[in-house]
Amino acid sequence: MANIDDDGISNISDNETFDEVAALRFSRRSFIGGGLTAMALASLSGVGSLLSAVPASAKANHAAASLLGFAGIPISEADAVVVPPGYTAKVLISWGDPVSTGPEFNQDGTNTADDQAVQWGMHNDGLVYFPLNGSSRGIIVQNNEYTDDVLLFHDGVSRWSSEKTRKSLNAHGVSIIEVTKQGRGKPRFGGEGEWRVVRPSTYGRRITGLTPINIGGPATGDGRLRTSADPSGTVVLGTLNNCAMGFTPWGTYLACEENFNGYFRKTGVQTPLEARYGITAAGFGYLWHTTDSRFNANLEPNEPNRFGWVVEIDPFAPNSTPVKRTALGRFKHEGAWVQEARDGRVVVYSGDDEQFEYIYRYVSRLPWRESREQGINPLDDGILYVAKFNANGSGTWLPLTPDNPLLNGWTLNDILINTRGAADLAGATKMDRPEWIDTFPESLTAIATLTNNTRRGTGTNPPVDAPNPRPANTYGHIIRWYYANDWTENTFGWDIFALAGDPANPASGSNIVGDKYGSPDGIYVAPSGRLWIQTDVSGSSVNPENRAGAYQGFGNNQMLCADPVTKETRRFLVGPNVCEVTGVFLTPDEKTMFVGIQHPGEAPTGSNSPINPKRFSSWPDGAAGGRPRSSLVVVTKNDGGQIGS
Ligand code: FEO
Ligand code: CA
Ligand code: CA
Predict the structure, then answer these.
(1) Measured in angstroms, how far is the CA atom of residue 14 from the centroid of ligand 1?
(2) Ligand 1 pocket residue status of 258, Cβ below 6 Å
(3) What pTM was estimated for this model as a whole?
(4) How far apart are CA 298 and CA 252, in angstroms?
(5) 79 in ligand 1 pocket by Cβ < 6 Å?
(6) pLDDT higher than 90, residue 540
(7) Ligand 1: which atom is nearest the Cα of residue 1?
(8) Which tens digit of pLDDT belongs to each residue from 120-166?
(9) Whole-angstrom Cα distance, residue 453 to residue 472?
(10) Is the pLDDT of residue 178 over 80?
(11) For residue 586, how many other CB atoms are within 10 A of its CB?
(12) What CA–CA distance (Å, rounded) separates 617 from 605?
């Protein structure tokens, strides 16, 4: 999400086909690990010197050949997706295309709310490929983070109506498609065709801002989740602002509600809870509250409390009802990355993307298989923690539980509904906008993007500290943390993987080993160990009419590939004008990469002109199209090899 990021400071299926990807995912090759494990982080007291020794040790453990086999590409300011020589990028599906059967996209924006309910949502973001048949047929689940309501309609936001509110809600949420490269299409390798969306498909589905979603976990039915439409506090209509994602070893998808606050309006005095979560009079400019009272927090003060959660979806059961998992806490969840611990419990990492917010970890009480055997969802029963990063390179997970003395008087539901407030009291470390988190399973190492924080160290704002070392942090950075023996430990060591910017320009303060980038957001560890990094520089800095300031010369938003040991970083893909590159997932054989291109051509104000929606971009439809469209792109290597090799 570029333009309408909240820059404020408010301080089930046991599906056997899934085993293949899960096995790959949870036992990925170790890169930093051999060395780290050998040293075993024997004592975190010496963590500083230990961490400095890690790369050398790991390097000895790592094959000499670079993981990066492709030719890095230059920056691009073209209105196109650019990939290295020997690779092909093709659009698979775009906003408004049917997810199964249903109406086609109208280039003039005249599709109805009902049309949109069965079409690919707007502004796609995090995604997961769930195999149905290995690497040649699967289900793709992708979030639709937000809408540009001017671009969404033929006549923009004029004459706002309940039909417009419904269409905007239906363009939010999650889109699910079945994809295959079997059958039709020109055979390329092994007789297989090109990737296409299967239509009709029993899996094709939309979950929107209007889909009934159950509330699960400890906060179910809490008085603060009850509304006039749902006096039991157990069923919410819709999921909103789904940014990054996760998936579970039992084969479900996790959609994360990020900037949910922007859809609500509250005039007059805010409650402390509203203030902490940014429920304001102006919101982000959406007009839903004018036709649907649940977005008017003066009338429905509890409706905002029903957003800001992680939503579990079973893609293999198209008629299943999604569930908001309240034990994971309520905040602006960027994503929810699941890592199985060695003892079988699940650990879930989640960043709260706002300036000076926190990084969280959830640990299930039971090993996930045992939990499910007992009929308990592993995401409903566990402990939530928040991260404290110490200056000496060590860190601590602070429990957010009623028995934490710093939370004296708080019930569990107080903590889960006002997670930010609890984390404040617990003493968490204020970070530079935590975005995606991923893991190197065997090396017990997690990695997270901190996209930027231009207020760090300015005025009365918090000063720089060891984990957030740059004032007015324009370019962002990437941080890692590691454990000695298992993911469930409450202490860890940490270091900074990269300070973003232009390494050729000392003024930028970057230590990137390779190609420049800034505002890292999406991050994804491939089974092969390649580290993929996606950028989200705001449209105000990358639009063709204003390539000035700190991001001059950085080109359009991009995706890079890094070797996690050598840190060598090469630019692999550049997106079209004013897009964000967000969402990436590989098939298990790593021969197909799915990449999200979000909000091409978005105007710097956050909405396009209904007069000239193609002012900045006409991607992907070009001259034939009426407006730019967020799309899911397929990248393949022309020789049939692994992506990045
Ligand atoms: Fe939706 Fe934090 O990016
Ligand atoms: Ca993001
Ligand atoms: Ca972002």
Answers:
(1) 31
(2) yes
(3) 0.92
(4) 36
(5) no
(6) no
(7) 1
(8) 999 999 999 999 999 999 999 999 999 999 999 999 999 999 999 99
(9) 6
(10) yes
(11) 25
(12) 15
b/e map of 513-538 (b: 16 or more CB within 10 Å)?
Answer: ebbbbbbbbbbbbbbbbbbbbbbbbb
Residue 428 near residue 387 (C-beta atoms within 8 A): yes
* DSSP result, 156-216: TTSS--HHHHHHHHHHSEEEEEEEE-SSSS---BTTB---EE-SS-SS-EEE-TTSEEEEE
Residue 533 φ/ψ, nearest 5 degrees: -125, 130
Q: Is the CB of 437 under 6 A from ligand 1?
A: no
- Any ligand 1 atom below 6 A from CB of 1: yes
- CB of 263 closer than 8 Å to CB of 295: yes
The pair of three-digit structure tokens given for residue 84, joined into one six-digit string: 């290295």
- Mean pLDDT to the nearest integer, 79-103: 98
Residue 210's nearest CA partner among 169, 174, 175 is 169
The first and second tokens of residue 571, run together, are 């630019």
Amino acid (one-letter) located at 569 = T
Cα separation, 155 vs 6, in Å, equals 26
The owner of tokens 């996606």 is 534
CB 554, CB 516: distance < 8 Å: yes
Question: Which residue type sits at 424?
Answer: D
Element (DSSP H or E) covering residue 54: helix 47-60
Residues 6 or more apart from 355 whose CB is under 8 A from it? 7, 8, 9, 432, 433, 453, 455, 456
The 3-state DSSP class for residue 610 equals coil
- What is the number of alpha carbons within 13 Å of residue 645 lying toward its C-beta? 16
Report how far residue 580's alpha carbon sits from residue 129's, in angstroms, rounded to the nearest whole number. Answer: 20
Ligand 3 centre distance from Cα of residue 147 (Å)? 15
Which of 598 and 1 is assigned the larger pLDDT?
598
> Mind giving me the DSSP string for 407-464?
GTT--HHHHHHTHHHHHHHHTPPPEE-EEEEEEEGGGTEEEEEE--BTTTTSTTS---
Asked if 452 and 432 touch (Cβ cutoff 8 Å), the reply is yes
Place of tokens 């060891």: 466
Side by side, the strands of the sheet bearing 592-598 are: 87-94, 631-637, 592-598, 580-586
